[in-house]
């Protein structure tokens, strides 16, 4: 049904009344200003850190895992450092004294190579001219120093609150000396030794590598080979199987690394495995595992099986190596537990110089290792004694192919095939590594790893599964190769005599440390190699010594960074960090090296108690693009933190055309550092963090929503002062609910903060702001905040609730979006700016509402997950309104009345009965809740007004029914909801349809009254108005009783501003005065009173004066 536009609707834009509304006014901008950013950054980083160091109670240490100082920061750095910052800020908000000193990892090959590359680009390194060690160290130090400065500035741009005045670097002199002191303790405890054994070796960077310095390429392709070695000493049981004319027999082996065949020193079998002696078509008699025969025959046809033997019967036999049979003689066949029949032939090629298992096996049997490969990954002359055919050939390239050709020429190659598999690569050069035996320094872990595992039992892991990951790495290690063949690092303080034997004692190291303190660490390389001053006096008589050239593994550098934590009284074992927080890859890196070095130190000092350097270990995932792919330049999916802050990852903002097309600037929706921080916080740290345009749009949208919310809060709090305390039980139902919802949000956020689940914090805030606050409470109080008198209880109570909401919202947001929270504070009314969300150690002073207590019944019926919920009624009303709007029956939600027809209370279950009771309790507030002009509750109770006459009297109506669980298990009870055309007129001030039609004068009557009155007499009548019958007064324009009272209060309280408010409106003036005099109010205090009128226009009981 359509509805004609009446004269009242056309007259709504009346400016004189709307100017008296208390619309929120806030200067908080919709976007943060770049010009103000430096000041806010200073306030929330340096100033706040300094303040909390002086005022915080209870030390909290977050020890920084140092980023590598070899380039600009990337999105992974942002994820890590912002997670740390959020953690620290939350602790500050709870009154803790945070100790967070950022560190930087400054040694190692990447920095060295980058520095050298830069020198080449600058033309400072002509081809063929090498720099000296001292020159390399100098440029590496300069490169690292410059990078540290750059990274510091980037971190500060992200609003990282830290002790930026006291950062540490692994290249600092004091740091290096403390590291050497830790190394000395381990030497004294016998935990450091030097040995020739296989290690991961990078030919591309010419240095040994630790497991943590490897990356695994799953797409690596290798050539595997089956070859045969002729047996020399043949077991009798095998010899008896051979035909009379067949005296030759060979062992068939399979290898995935043919380049290691020159280093072969044995063949391994398994005692309890069955082997066959097989006559083949092309390669004579071969020994092969019986379980591998089927696969073996696919490339080497077998004519007959001559017999079966056990692996035990093969042990003790010997064979000849084609490259060194004349120099080394026969080589043994031995038993090994690692032999399986899952692949190959069941006979394993053993090269102790190129495999750890092979090395251990040969150590048990006294077999010397051989590794004929140099630092560059090229074969040496030892690879093929008596021939230089292999010398200088790349083991992973030409050398590998050449070996296969040599075996082919000797008719010893049975078969080759190419396969794809996972293979270790150097994480720096991104090139394949090899396993190669060299003389290296090792830390013995066998004696401390049980203690390290015991220490982990006292550590909290987030997520809990990371305990198993770190434990497995510790369990699998027995030693740690800590030496590197580079120059940019901390030297291993070893002295070598003329025979090449190393000397390293606690006494010799103490002397070297004293020399470093005196001359500086670079003097280790710049002084003459045999300078006697570096040798402890007690050793000088034993001959000249040469200083070693190896440097320590960078994981040992950063692993001993727990030395940087400041000790306090009673911490004889050194302070323990509350938190270590890094990426999941650090289980095999920094977490492990920190734990092992700390346990080694404590063990060396005689501490028996197992203790890790951290109480809580938190790991986060990696950063991936929106499709879950790893970021790389080749993929073109790399995202920088700056792009998130400046908004350039999103489409540009739409702009109005400028005149003459002169303004062609492209603007982006840059939300600054808070956008980057909010992205970090919204990512579940237990999983990889995705980033892309859809997510960033949501982040920016949420930030914009927060700014709009804060803008409204700061505007509505214009006249509020938290010195005015309100008792919780004095609040109306909606206010009490809003307080409880705000507190629940804060409790949920606090709980998530304590569990380091920052994505749940964001989710709790998002849900609260979008649903409970914006869609519910803010909408329900707009009428009383905009329309009611400044200091009326209805308005001040709402402001008290809004103040609590502001404080709770700022508390939970300050760790995540500190810049926004700091900026909003500057736009609070002056009387509220004493409250600082970052520095309020005592909240009681600023609490506006006292005696807050639970109201489970009220909260229950506002729970959207319950079947009997007010949300269901709210949703039904909104759907009916949308239907009416589509038929152009109404516009604003105030343009309808609502009738809710309730069945007998006995027909509901307990929760449904609770809903009915709360609905009746909240009946005076339902119109505000649903943002309509009037709400009427009816029921089957004969004492309640019937539904039908109400609906029949309306110009149009819309109806629906919702079902609520009933006492019967199979039935639901209906609640009928109707919206209909308002039966009264629209107030020109509050826009509610609450003005009785009979008191509004028609246009013709207004004209007649105007002609009969004196042109000069338009002022308010001076006669007493106490006896005026408002119900018979004719109003020139429709104004409701509530607004009449507020307008009269404004006119009498502020005559200089509103003295002429009623000029030309004698009817309104008389009605307004009657509202005042009828209540017995004085002119001076009328604005302090709250006049409430029920939905039928009857005056309710007056509330207490605020001054009481």
Written overview of the protein:
The strands form eleven sheets. The chain has a six-stranded mixed beta sheet with strand order 12-10-11-8-7-16. Strands 2-1-25-26-18 form a five-stranded parallel beta sheet. A four-stranded antiparallel beta sheet has the order 6-5-17-19. The chain has 35 helices and 36 strands. The chain has 1108 residues and is an alpha/beta fold. The radius of gyration is 42 Å and the shape is elongated. The longest helix has 30 residues. The N terminus and C terminus are likely disordered. Keywords: Aminoacyl-tRNA synthetase, ATP-binding, Ligase, Nucleotide-binding, Protein biosynthesis.
Distance between the termini: 52 Å
Number of helices: 35
Helical proportion? 25-40%
Uncertain residue ranges = 1-14, 1002-1031, 1078-1108
Helix vs. strand class: alpha/beta
Task: Classify the beta-strand content into a percent band.
Answer: 15-25%
Q: Output the radius of gyration.
A: 42 Å
What does the secondary structure layout of this molecule look like, with pairings?
Blueprint: H1 7-10, H2 15-18, H3 37-55, E1 59-63, H4 75-93, E2 97-99, E3 103-104, H5 109-121, H6 133-157, E4 168-169, H7 173-188, E5 192-202, E6 207-209, E7 214-230, H8 236-239, E8 249-255, E9 266-269, E10 274-280, E11 285-289, H9 293-297, E12 302-310, H10 311-314, E13 318-319, H11 325-328, E14 331-335, E15 348-350, H12 356-365, H13 398-409, E16 413-426, E17 434-444, H14 449-456, E18 460-462, H15 466-475, E19 479-481, E20 483-484, E21 495-496, E22 502-503, H16 506-519, H17 523-526, E23 546-547, E24 551-552, H18 554-559, E25 577-583, H19 590-604, E26 614-620, E27 623-625, H20 641-646, H21 673-682, E28 689-691, H22 693-716, E29 726-727, H23 733-754, H24 758-787, H25 793-813, H26 818-826, E30 849-850, H27 856-861, H28 870-886, E31 897-902, H29 910-921, H30 926-930, E32 934-939, H31 947-952, E33 957-965, E34 972-980, E35 985-986, E36 993-995, H32 1003-1012, H33 1041-1053, H34 1055-1058, H35 1066-1078
Parallel strand pairs: 1-2, 1-25, 3-4, 8-11, 9-14, 18-26, 25-26, 27-28, 29-30, 31-32
Antiparallel strand pairs: 5-6, 5-17, 7-8, 7-16, 9-15, 10-11, 10-12, 13-14, 17-19, 20-24, 21-22, 21-23, 31-34, 33-34, 35-36
């Amino acid at each position: 049904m359509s509805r004609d536009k009446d004269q009242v609707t056309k007259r709504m834009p009346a400016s004189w009344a709307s100017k008296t509304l208390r619309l929120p006014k806030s200067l908080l901008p919709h976007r943060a200003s770049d010009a103000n950013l430096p000041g806010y950054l200073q306030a929330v980083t340096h100033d706040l850190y300094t303040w909390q160091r002086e005022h915080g109670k209870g030390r909290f240490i977050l020890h920084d895992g140092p980023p590598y100082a070899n380039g600009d920061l990337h999105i992974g750095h942002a994820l890590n450092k912002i997670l740390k910052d959020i953690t620290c800020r939350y602790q500050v908000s709870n009154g803790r004294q945070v100790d967070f000193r950022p560190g930087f990892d400054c040694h190692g090959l990447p920095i060295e190579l980058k520095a050298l590359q830069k020198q080449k680009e600058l033309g400072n390194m002509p081809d063929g001219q090498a720099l000296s060690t001292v020159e390399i160290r100098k440029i590496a130090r300069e490169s690292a120093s410059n990078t540290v400065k750059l990274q510091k500035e980037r971190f500060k741009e992200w609003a990282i609150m830290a002790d930026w005045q006291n950062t540490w670097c692994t290249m600092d002199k004091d740091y290096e000396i403390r590291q050497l002191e830790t190394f000395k303790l381990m030497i004294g405890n016998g935990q450091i030794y030097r040995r020739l054994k296989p290690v991961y070796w990078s030919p591309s960077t010419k240095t040994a590598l630790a497991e943590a310095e490897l990356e695994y390429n799953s797409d690596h392709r290798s050539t595997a080979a089956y070859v045969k070695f002729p047996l020399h000493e043949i077991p009798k049981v095998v010899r008896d199987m051979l035909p009379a004319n067949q005296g030759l027999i060979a062992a068939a082996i399979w290898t995935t690394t043919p380049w290691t065949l020159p280093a072969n020193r044995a063949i391994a079998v398994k005692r309890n495995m069955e082997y066959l002696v097989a006559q083949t078509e092309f390669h004579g008699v071969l020994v092969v595992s019986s379980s591998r025969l089927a696969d073996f025959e696919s490339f080497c046809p077998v004519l007959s099986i001559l017999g079966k033997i056990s692996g035990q019967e093969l042990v003790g036999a010997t064979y000849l190596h084609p490259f060194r049979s004349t120099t080394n003689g026969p080589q043994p066949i031995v038993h090994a537990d690692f032999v399986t029949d899952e692949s190959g032939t069941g006979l394993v090629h053993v090269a102790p110089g190129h495999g750890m298992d092979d090395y251990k096996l040969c150590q048990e049997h006294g077999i010397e290792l051989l590794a004929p490969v140099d630092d560059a990954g090229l074969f040496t002359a030892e690879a093929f004694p008596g021939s230089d055919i292999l010398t200088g050939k790349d083991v992973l390239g030409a050398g590998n192919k050449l070996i296969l050709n040599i075996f082919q020429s000797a008719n010893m190659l049975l078969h080759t095939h190419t396969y794809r598999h996972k293979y270790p690569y150097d994480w720096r050069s991104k090139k394949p590594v090899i396993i190669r035996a060299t003389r290296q320094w090792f830390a013995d872990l066998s004696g401390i790893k049980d203690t390290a595992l015991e220490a982990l039992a006292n550590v909290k892991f987030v997520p809990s599964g990371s305990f198993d990951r770190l434990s497995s790495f510790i369990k699998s290690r027995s030693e740690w190769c800590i030496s590197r063949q580079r120059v940019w690092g901390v030297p291993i303080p070893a002295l070598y005599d003329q025979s090449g034997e190393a000397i390293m004692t606690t006494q010799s190291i103490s002397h070297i440390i004293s020399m470093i303190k005196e001359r500086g660490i670079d003097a280790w390389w710049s002084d003459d190699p045999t300078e006697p001053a570096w040798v402890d006096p007690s050793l000088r008589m034993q001959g000249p010594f040469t200083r070693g050239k190896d440097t320590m593994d960078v994981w040992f550098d950063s692993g001993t960074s727990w030395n940087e934590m400041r000790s306090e009284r009673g911490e004889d074992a050194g302070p323990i960090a509350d938190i270590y927080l890094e990426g999941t890859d650090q289980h095999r890196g920094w977490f492990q090296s920190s734990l092992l070095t700390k346990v080694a130190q404590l063990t060396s000092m005689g501490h028996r108690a197992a203790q890790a350097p951290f109480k809580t270990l938190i790991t986060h995932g990696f950063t991936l693009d929106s499709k879950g792919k790893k970021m790389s330049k080749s993929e073109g999916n790399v995202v920088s933190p700056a792009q998130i802050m400046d908004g350039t990852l999103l489409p540009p903002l739409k702009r109005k055309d400028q005149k003459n097309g002169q303004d062609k600037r492209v603007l982006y929706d840059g939300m600054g550092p808070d956008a980057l921080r909010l992205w970090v916080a919204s990512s579940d740290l237990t999983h990889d963090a995705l980033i892309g345009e859809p997510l960033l749009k949501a982040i920016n949208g949420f930030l914009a929503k927060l700014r709009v919310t804060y803008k409204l809060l700061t505007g509505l709090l214009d006249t509020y002062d938290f010195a005015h305390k309100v008792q919780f039980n004095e609040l109306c139902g909606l206010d009490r609910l809003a307080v409880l919802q705000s507190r629940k949000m804060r409790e949920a956020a606090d709980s998530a903060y304590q569990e380091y689940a920052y994505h749940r914090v964001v989710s709790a805030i998002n849900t609260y702001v979008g649903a409970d606050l914006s869609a519910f409470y803010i909408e329900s109080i707009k009428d009383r905040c905009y329309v009611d008198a400044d200091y009326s209880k209805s308005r001040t109570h709402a402001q008290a609730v809004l103040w609590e909401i502001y404080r709770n919202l700022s508390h939970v947001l300050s760790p995540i979006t500190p810049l926004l929270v700091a900026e909003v504070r500057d736009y609070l009314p002056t009387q509220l700016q004493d409250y600082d969300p970052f520095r309020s150690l005592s909240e009681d002073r600023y609490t506006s509402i006292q005696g807050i207590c639970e109201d489970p019944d009220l909260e229950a019926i506002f729970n959207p997950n319950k079947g009997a919920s007010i949300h269901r009624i709210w949703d039904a009303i909104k759907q009916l309104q949308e239907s009416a709007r589509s038929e152009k029956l109404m516009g604003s939600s105030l343009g309808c009345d609502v009738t809710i027809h309730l069945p007998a209370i006995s027909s509901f279950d307990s929760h449904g009965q609770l809903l009915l009771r709360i609905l009746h309790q909240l009946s005076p507030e339902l119109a505000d809740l649903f943002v309509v002009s009037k709400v009427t509750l009816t029921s089957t109770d004969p004492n309640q007004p019937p539904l039908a006459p109400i609906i029949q009297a309306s110009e149009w109506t819309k109806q629906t029914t919702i079902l609520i669980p009933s006492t019967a298990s199979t039935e639901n009870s209906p609640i009928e909801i109707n919206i209909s055309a308002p039966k009264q007129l629209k107030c020109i001030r509050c826009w509610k349809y609450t003005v009785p039609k009979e008191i509004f004068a028609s246009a013709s009557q207004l004209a007649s009254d105007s002609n009969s009155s004196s042109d000069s007499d338009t002022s308010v009548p001076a006669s007493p108005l106490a006896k005026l019958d408002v119900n018979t007064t004719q109003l020139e324009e429709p104004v409701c009783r509530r607004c009449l009272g507020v307008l009269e209060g404004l006119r009498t309280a502020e005559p200089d501003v509103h003295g002429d408010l009623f000029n030309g409106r004698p009817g309104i003036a008389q009605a307004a005065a009657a509202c005042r005099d009828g209540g017995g109010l004085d002119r001076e205090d009328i604005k302090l009173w709250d006049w409430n009128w029920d939905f039928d226009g009857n005056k309710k009981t007056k509330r207490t004066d605020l001054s009481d």
